[in-house]
Specification:
two-stranded antiparallel ribbon; alpha+beta; seven-stranded mixed β-sheet
Length: about 270
C-alpha cells in the first residue's frame, strides 16, 4: 500500500482535523508548500491528511521544480562558482535530463516527492517548474503547461487562479510562495531573460534555450507580510502537526501582489 493511501496514524488524524479547522475547503483545489522537518511526522501521513481534509472531490497540488537540470539556475551558478572552465563543463555534462515521468524534485521537500510518486499522480511537463497533483481536477489544472512559460498564463498557477484555489504554507514562509510569481507575469512589460536546461528526448539528451519572464522571489517575504497587514482576515493561521500553517486564497494573494510589485519594483524598493 502506498504512503499516501495507507491508514492514517493518530498524528495524521490530528493533522486532518487541524487542516479542516484552519479552513481547507472540502472539494476545492489546494496548492501546498511544506517543510516536513518543521511539521514533523511522515510525509505520507501528511499527504493523506491533506487529501482527507479536501475530500474525494478535492485536488492537492505541489511544486515539483527541477533546477538541477539547468546551467542558468541559481543552484548551478552557486555550484560552479570558483571552478575552472573544465570542471564546470564536467558538472554540466553530468546534469540529469528532465523527464516528467521519473525526474525527482529533491529541493521541493518530502511531501512534494510523496505526491509526485503516488500511483495516480499527474505532473505538468515544464522542464524547470513542473507541478504534481492528486485528485479529480489534476488533469485540468496541470495540462497545457507550455515549456516557455514557467509560472505565467500558460502554467498551472493560472489554472489554479481560475479555480479559486487555496494556498497552504506549512512550516514555510511567504518567500516560498510560488503563487506570487503569477503576479510577475501580470505586471506591465515585465523584464525577461534567457533560460537553458537539458531535457530527455527520443534521441537522448538535448539542451534547450528559451526566453521567459525574469523570476525574482527576493522580496516575496516582505510582500507576504504586507498582504497579511493590508488584508485583515485574508490569511488564516494555526497549527498543523508541529508547524504553523498559513492558508489563503491564491486569487486574493496574486491580485494584491500585482499592484504591490508594480509599485515597489518600479520605485526600486
Amino acid at each position: 500500500m502506498s504512503a499516501v493511501t495507507r491508514h492514517l496514524l493518530p498524528g495524521g488524524e490530528r493533522a486532518a482535523t487541524q487542516l479542516c479547522e484552519l479552513g481547507v475547503r472540502r472539494g476545492g483545489a489546494l496548492l501546498v508548500h511544506a517543510s516536513m522537518r518543521a511539521a514533523g511526522g511522515g510525509a505520507g501521513d501528511m499527504a493523506h491528511a491533506l487529501r482527507r481534509a479536501l475530500g474525494p472531490a478535492g485536488t492537492l497540488v505541489v511544486p515539483s521544480f527541477t533546477p538541477e537540470n539547468s546551467d542558468t539556475s541559481r543552484a548551478y551558478l552557486d555550484r560552479v562558482r570558483g571552478l575552472s572552465e573544465e570542471a564546470a563543463a564536467a558538472v554540466r555534462a553530468r546534469m540529469p535530463a528532465f523527464d516528467p515521468a521519473v525526474s525527482p524534485a529533491p529541493t521541493m521537500g518530502a511531501l512534494a516527492e510523496v505526491v509526485r510518486l503516488a500511483p495516480d499522480a499527474r505532473r505538468s511537463s515544464h522542464p524547470q517548474t513542473s507541478f504534481a497533483g492528486l485528485g479529480p481536477a489534476a488533469v485540468r489544472l496541470l495540462t497545457g503547461h507550455r515549456p516557455d512559460c514557467h509560472l505565467g498564463e500558460d502554467s498551472p498557477l493560472a489554472r489554479l487562479y481560475e479555480a479559486d484555489a487555496q494556498v497552504l504554507l506549512l512550516g514555510t514562509g511567504f518567500d516560498r510562495c510560488s503563487a506570487f510569481h503569477l503576479a510577475e507575469y501580470r505586471r506591465p512589460a515585465p523584464p525577461r531573460r534567457l533560460y537553458r536546461c537539458v531535457m530527455a528526448s527520443g534521441e537522448g539528451r538535448r539542451w534547450w534555450e528559451y526566453e521567459d519572464v525574469a523570476l525574482d522571489d527576493s522580496d516575496f517575504a516582505g510582500l507576504g507580510e504586507d498582504f497579511v497587514r493590508a488584508r485583515p482576515g485574508a490569511v488564516s493561521s494555526g497549527p498543523v502537526g508541529a508547524a504553523s500553517g498559513r492558508l489563503f486564497r491564491l486569487r486574493a494573494a496574486v491580485d494584491f501582489a500585482v499592484g504591490w510589485l508594480e509599485e515597489r519594483r518600479a520605485a526600486g524598493c
